[in-house]
Design brief:
By secondary structure, the chain is an alpha/beta fold. It is built from 8 helices and 10 strands. Helix content is about 30%, strand content about 25%. It has a 6-stranded mixed sheet, with helices on both faces. It has a 4-stranded antiparallel sheet with strand order 2-1-4-5, covered by helices on one side. Strand 1 and strand 2 form a beta hairpin. The chain starts with a strand and ends with a helix.
């Protein structure tokens, strides 16, 4: 599904402040995998996610998604395959618009420009049914401005909106970092359920090794722009949580 071959990213190439952020990474991620990326700040985690999303282009190497070479394709064109949820809940929603209007915008994100049918009763019903699965009671507040909700509520809704256009890949860039523990747990459980229900390929960046153990099918540790360790966590019966903490140091 996702392939990186000898991918390198150098910022400020040829200048005194040149930085090698990603150093010749080879990575294959299969359909349906939930890959968790951990590592210290500056290890290359977010740069790797930006390369996969198309927010930045590699200095060298190739990137493919679903068998398509997307190395030089920008993020707005890769959105036919990829949805992304950021750390800040505000980044994924329009504060002044209602919940319903936010969902409508998300539903046409990758469609060609032109006249579109607005919000009708069928769409309202669809949105209410999706939101009801969160168990937050927000399906009764779809006319409420998104900006009046808590960070956890907005992030949970952002997850739902991210898959409105049948994406295949979900990128989660520390989606719970700005949330309190209870909201963070709701968001992670929601993400896990959506990934399983819609058979998505997912990549999560986190500093939370407990979440990595609980949700990831594969955990990658990065350092200095390289993959240092790569573990398949399918065999969890053989991998106790405290062993994983030791494994990643």
């Amino acid at each position: 599904m996702i392939g990186l071959e000898k991918v390198t990213k150098i910022f400020n190439k040829g200048k005194a402040n040149q930085v090698g952020a990603i150093n010749g990474i080879n990575l294959q991620i299969a359909d349906g995998e939930f890959v968790v990326i951990v590592g210290a700040n500056g290890s290359g985690k977010t740069t790797l996610l930006n390369l996969i999303s198309g927010s930045i282009m590699p200095t060298s190497g190739t990137i493919s998604i679903d068998g398509n070479d997307v190395t030089n394709i920008p993020d707005y064109k890769r959105s036919r395959w990829i949805a992304r949820v950021f750390q800040n809940p505000v980044s994924g929603t329009a504060s002044d618009l209602s919940i319903l209007d936010n969902f409508r915008l998300a539903s046409i994100r990758t469609q060609p420009k032109g006249l579109k049918i607005g919000v009708n009763e069928a769409f309202k019903k669809q949105v209410k049914e999706k939101i009801a699965t969160l168990g937050m009671g927000l399906e009764k507040k779809i006319e409420q401005p998104m900006g009046t909700l808590s960070g956890g509520q907005r992030q949970a809704l952002t997850l739902l909106m991210s898959i409105m256009d049948d994406c295949k890949v979900l990128l989660l860039d520390e989606p719970t970092a700005a949330l309190d523990p209870r909201s963070a747990e709701v968001v992670m459980k929601t993400a896990d359920k959506l990934i399983k229900d819609f058979k998505l390929t997912a990549i999560l960046i986190t500093h939370n090794l407990k979440d990595a153990y609980n949700y990831g099918t594969r955990v990658i540790q990065m350092g200095e722009g390289c993959i240092l360790k790569d573990i398949d966590t399918h065999a969890k019966a053989k991998l106790k949580q405290h062993d994983m903490f030791d494994w990643f140091g």
